[in-house]
Amino acid sequence: MKKNELKKVLKPLIKECIKECIFEEGVLSGIITEVAKGLGTQRIVAESATKKTIDEPERQKKAEALEEQRQQRIKRLNESMSFGNVNVFEGTEEVLPESNNHGPLSDIAPGDAGIDITGIVNLADGKWKHLI
Q1: C-alpha distances in angstroms, 129 versus 52, 100, 116, 122?
Q2: Pick from 40, 39, 22, 43: which is nearest to 31 by CA?
Q3: Beta-carbon neighbour count of residue 131 at 10 Å?
Q4: Do 21 and 27 touch, CB atoms closer than 8 A?
Q5: Residue pair 121/128 in contact by the 8 Å Cβ criterion
Q6: Which pLDDT belongs to residue 97?
Q7: Tens-digit pLDDT profile for the chain (132 aa)?
């Protein structure tokens, strides 16, 4: 008997025997518990940088100091930008953004009131229902 023929005969027999052993005799549950124990006992060591912990009162003082500095910067900026009660933007108009819109109202300002059409209702002397 050749090696390949023996393999064809023995392989299914061995496979069936292993299945019976694992499922019928409770070997599978033992394997699972051993794996679970092995996973549970492993310790993962992670290095972390140590942080200096700041007490809450110190953090509060630091936040207040930063806010005070911010308020002082804002005050200095506002003082440097004053022009002696002169309206710098007097007489200027809003610049419309250039767009690639090709709609019927693309070149009309959004705040433009347009044309007053209230007189159109009076043109037909209230007979619009008859004209429609």
Answers
A1: 82, 41, 22, 13
A2: 22
A3: 7
A4: yes
A5: yes
A6: 66
A7: 788 888 888 888 888 888 887 777 677 778 888 888 877 766 666 666 666 666 888 999 999 999 999 999 988 887 877 777 777 778 888 776 666 667 787 777 778 888 888 777 777 777 777 776
CB atoms within 10 A of CB 27: 13
The two tokens of residue 36 are 């679970």
User: Which residue in the block uniquely carries the two structure tokens 């200095």?
Assistant: 76
Q: How many residues does the chain have?
A: 132
- Name the one residue in this structure whose structure tokens are 């911010």: 70
Q: Do 109 and 94 form a contact (C-beta atoms < 8 A)? A: yes
Question: What is the pTM (predicted TM-score) of this model?
Answer: 0.27
Residues 6+ away with beta carbon under 8 Å from 124: 131
Burial letters 59-95, b for 16+ CB under 10 A, else e = eeeeeeeeeeeeeeeeeeeeeeeeeeeeeeeeeeeee
C-alpha 77, offset from chain centre: 34
Domain boundary assignment for the chain: 3-41
Distance CA 79, CA 83 (A): 9
